[in-house]
């Protein structure tokens, strides 16, 4: 129940947006026709065939009962206005109809005939007045109590129609509106150009499709307003209204582009399958829009009807997405959804204002919503770009930190390797000293043995010296070396024993030399043996360790944990 009340409150505040929209539009008379309009009369079909304009005053017009008229046919109407409600010299009759040709004729004294041509199906080069309000013709007020005008109206399409709702716009008000419109649209075009340039720069720098679809959406959606105010026709197609009115459908086509934009804006959002369905919806809407544009070449009125239905559906879809996603997305996407809601509400208010004839400038309401939407999109995109840059900077800092840590570790390893190399050099030096000491002691033993054979004096004492030297050679020197080796590589012997438990003392010593990365020649020099003997010992050690032919014994021993 609480959730239901919250949603009702949301809907209530959304519809409150229509109140300022209606106030902005102005409190106009809600009647179908102007208060000054006394009567609308119609000339029967039989009478207006091959009719000369000069014959109009003599023709008998009958009261128009709002009966349906045939499309793709022209009809003559006689409109009579009460001058006491008209306070200016001239007015524009605005038919508020995108599908018509309008031809106005007035008769004055001295046989003067005033003519005015308008309508969206009339080339702008042939219209009496250009600019805002395509379907307009000028009516001049007579000096009598009533002003009588004759309107020839033709509409396209396959649907039957009635006489259109008309508005009377004072001439000075029209020219004021035209000047204001030109200023507003110049500002609008400048804003659109800046926003599009900003997004194209972002797309060029980042290659993110979000910015590209924003650019395309802003351009295509803007074309509708430039079409509505006649700028496209005036600058590009002044003689071909059929091409110009195709831009009416830019509003529908932009809806599909918007949903593609939303699809990319929702990237990395935890919203389940919503993003996939939005992409499918965007594809369907875009396809239908393109098909509707092609269909409009043959049946423009029906194509406009389809476009209106699609606009309503897209507005409802935006509203539903807002309610479903607003709590599940990031701040950036919330701004995008809020902007979309402004456009939907502006469009809805404009439709209501137009439907109830509240204002002839209802398009301003829609354009205001569109501008708010684009500005909020720009804010969201700026947030997105800022967050992306921040993320990239954080990643770069992390990479730099990792590189720094790696460099420091490499320096530590390099320092440790240098220390190990120094200690290995010390061990090698000690091993060489021990080897030299052993060699010297062996030489002394030989000399003493020779003396022992020559001189029997104090033979027993000499034997004792020889025995002590032999004992010292066999034990002390290499124990001293192994003590130094264990200091440098404290875990080597235990790891070696764990992996290869059946090695002899000499094989342990050979493994120690290989751990020090000594060659067979260097080992032979230290141990006082021949290089061939060392190679044979290495070969036996390989077999005992069970190494294969492609395995290098030095590499295997170097890989044994030592500290």
Descriptive overview:
By secondary structure, the chain is α+β, with helices and mostly antiparallel strands. Helices cover 63% and strands 10% of the residues. The protein has a six-stranded antiparallel sheet, with no helix packed on it. A hairpin with a 5-residue loop joins strand 5 and strand 6.
In short:
The chain is an alpha+beta fold and 563 residues long. It contains 18 helices and 9 strands.
Question: Which strand order does the major sheet show?
Answer: 2-1-3-8-5-6
Shape: rod-shaped
Rg measurement, Å = 49 Å
Number of helices: 18
Average pLDDT value? Answer: 78
Main β-sheet description? 6 strands, antiparallel
| Fraction of residues in β-strands | 5-15%
What is the β-strand count? Answer: 9
Q: List segments where confidence is low: pLDDT < 50 over at least 5 consecutive residues.
A: 1-31
Q: Ends: how far apart?
A: 71 Å
Q: N-to-C SSE series?
A: HHEHEEEEEEEEHHHHHHHHHHHHHHH
* Share in helix: 55-70%
List keywords for this structure.
alpha+beta; 563 residues; 10% strand; six-stranded antiparallel beta sheet; three-stranded antiparallel beta sheet
List the helices and strands and how they pair.
Blueprint (H helix, E strand, L loop, with lengths): L1 H15 L1 H8 L11 E6 L2 H4 L13 E2 L10 E9 L7 E5 L5 E8 L5 E6 L17 E5 L5 E10 L11 E4 H36 L2 H20 L2 H5 L5 H4 L5 H16 L8 H23 L3 H26 L5 H25 L6 H93 L4 H30 L3 H8 L5 H11 L4 H8 L3 H15 L7 H6 L5
Antiparallel strand pairs: 1-2, 1-3, 3-8, 4-7, 4-9, 5-6, 5-8
Helix pairs in contact: 2-11, 4-5, 4-12, 5-8, 5-12, 8-9, 9-10, 10-11, 11-12, 12-13, 16-17
